[in-house]
Amino acid sequence: MSKSMDAASFLQEAFQFVVNTVDDWKSEIPETLAFQREIGHVQEIIGPVATDDKNDLHNCLSTFINNGCKNGNSKSTHEAILKDILRAVYNGKKRLAKYYSEKSSSVALLPLPIFKRKVNVTGCRKDIEAQANSILSGLDQLFQLTHIASKANRPTTASFEKDLTKECYLFWKRSMGQDIIGSWDTFISAYTKLYANFQPLDLDYTQTLLCAKDGKTMTLYGFIAVTRKHAFPFESMASHASVNSTATSEEARAEIAKMVIPLVTEFSSQEMQAHLVALYGWYKGTPRDDAKALQNRADEWALLVKASRQQTDTKTDMHTAADGVDAARRAINFFYQRFMMMWRIGPISRDMFASAGFPGKPRINDFLRYVQPLDRANLTVIIGKQDVDWNSKKPEVYGFLETLL
Questions:
Q1: DSSP string, 68-136
Q2: What is the pLDDT of residues 79-127, one digit of tens each?
Q3: Counting Cβ atoms within 10 Å, is residue 44 exposed (0-12), middle (13-18) or buried (19+)?
Q4: Which of 119, 128, 186, 307 has its C-alpha lying 20 to 30 A from 280's C-alpha?
């Protein structure tokens, strides 16, 4: 180090170095963008977490930095993790500087193309990726320390939108909100509702990757690191941990499109429109945001259906209308069951649904608002299961769609 500096100044210098050399790395070493973002995330939290009155942590880190981030004794786990993070920043910056120097020397000293020394771009890319991952790993460990999680200036989920794919970001936001620290129980509950169940081995492996030693706490930093390595959603984690996935063939894409397109088209069919008219007609005049009133109206429907099944020869118009609503309930429910299965096929089907804007929040909300009370009334009134807990007995599609929203 040419001058004495504290942790905050050191991080700012490294961040600015990456910004100033963007033209040198943007096409050849794209991993530097992630490295830059990780430095930024450390800057967000370094003030509170680099302060420790008991151990004079601020001065310890300054000494460590000004000694070239070389190994030194640490008085706490907290201090050791911070030193690992700062070392990764130091090593990443040093590796980039070395690459720029080698590249410049190659051009200046040996101008003829046939004599140019080959600069190791691949090696530099791997090194920068490794240092970025080391920073993430350190931040993950840091925020799993209870006293850090409580005192740190925690960033929110919104700060990490550019660090994740759209699907990863939306999943974390839906399940954990704006908190970057979450529980495994909340995570796996939301995950299984959307993507179905893990195989037992995959479940244990994923929990081990994402969670602290207690198996209960996880952070967004760890989630980013794991999804970068394994992609998301997690599939066959343990058995394919070291295998690179291959690009999906155009044939597979075409086959999935053959399933998705007809389903989207079906929603606009005359038959489906008739079912929707029957459904909305039944609730006409019922306040759409009054859950109790909607359930009462559904219970009325169930009583009529129950009576209709006993009066085959003397059905009234109301009995006939209730039968039409029953047919609509079954058809619309089955439609969303198929949507759930197709959505879970993989990223291709999800991208296709997203591109079509289908089904969209308004349609999903209508399904949950109007069809769910009918299904509940079917269970409690028609079938007669009065004492069951609806939340534990309701069809899987409801939890899936509630989470998808």
A1: TT-----SSHHHHHHHHHHHHHHHHHHHHHHHHHHHHHHHHH--SGGGPPPP-HHHHHHHHHHHHHHHH
A2: 899 999 999 999 999 999 998 888 777 655 455 554 455 667 889 999 9
A3: middle
A4: 307
Token output for 319: 């009995």
Count of CB atoms within 10 A of residue 355's CB?
A: 9
**Beta-bridge partner residues of 219:** 181
Give the pLDDT confidence score for residue 258 in this predicted structure.
86
Coil/strand/helix, residue 276: helix
* Cα(82)–Cα(90) distance, integer angstroms: 12
For the four alpha carbons of 297, 300, 305 and 311, in that order, the dihedral sign comes to negative
Of the CA atoms within 13 Å of residue 332, those in its CB half-sphere come to 30
Given a contact cutoff of 8 angstroms between Cβ atoms, the answer to whether 20 and 75 are in contact is no
Q: Could you give the 3-state DSSP secondary structure of residue 364?
A: helix
Of 238, 217, 67, the C-alpha closest to 145 is 217
> What is the DSSP-derived secondary structure letter of residue 53?
T
3-state SS, residue 219? strand
Would you tell me which CATH number, out of the four given (3.30.70.2750, 2.60.40.10, 1.10.238.10, 3.40.718.10), belongs to the domain 159-245? 1.10.238.10
Tell me which DSSP letter residue 51 carries: -
CA angle 362, 272, 255 (to 5 degrees): 85
CA angle 191, 294, 304 (to 5 degrees): 115
Tokens describing residue 325: 């609503």
Residues 235-270 as b/e (b if ≥16 CB within 10 A, e otherwise) read eebbeeeeeeeeeeeeeeeeebeeebeebbeeeeee
